[in-house]
Amino acid sequence: MLAAFGLCLVMGIGFITISTSHKPETGPLGGAAPLSDDEASTQVVESARQIIDVAKLREVSGSYAFLSCTSLHDPPYQAAAYLNFRLPEANSVKRIREVASAMLANGWREAPSMGEHFGMKLTKDGVTSTFHENQDDPRFAAMRIYGECRNTSDHRSDNPAFVEITDRLG
Q1: Which of 47, 100, 103, 153 has the fewest CB atoms within 10 Å of its CB?
Q2: pLDDT higher than threshold 60 for residue 131
């Protein structure tokens, strides 16, 4: 009886071991190829230029920085562009909706919300954009464009952290 129980136990463990598939580790990039600093920054700068063009944004200024995709300051990083653009004096909410409509017509789609309580959130080709009226200066809107978390360079000591891109946006 004890021998039969032992045999069943060994066979059961063998079955579990054989039938359990081990998935290869994909790492922090989920199996995607890493992006160089230039590739990561180009991803957000080019997205910004496309948005400026299709939405006909005026008086745009911007910069970008590399942000850690972890809760710490470790890789991987994503490039994040910070833009400000002029809003009309009247009906700024309508203008924000017009920007969203222009982006949607250009292939962007609504992104799932993750704690945003204001503004718009759209995504295209792995890039996410959030935008809303600038709470500090209602004459302008604030837009953030986040690239993919695929940059593995070490940006903990970047100085300056922000790179001015206003001249590259026009």
Answers
A1: 153
A2: yes
Taking the CA atoms of residue 167, residue 128, residue 119 and residue 137 in that order, the dihedral angle to the nearest 10 degrees is -20
| CA neighbor of 95 nearest in space, from 50, 47, 131 | 131
Which segments within the chain are labelled E, that is strand?
Answer: 61-68, 77-86, 109-110, 120-124, 127-133, 140-146, 163-164
Q: Is residue 164 part of a domain?
A: yes
In a domain, 4, yes or no: no
Q: What are the tens digits of pLDDT across the range 42-73?
A: 999 999 999 999 999 999 999 999 999 997 88
Question: What 3-state class would DSSP assign to 35?
Answer: strand
Number of domains in the chain: 1
**Contact assessment for residue 78 and residue 151, using Cβ atoms and an 8 Å cutoff:** yes
Q: Does a structural domain hold residue 1? A: no
pTM tops 0.70: yes
Percent of the chain with pLDDT over 90: 70
| In a domain? residue 19 | no
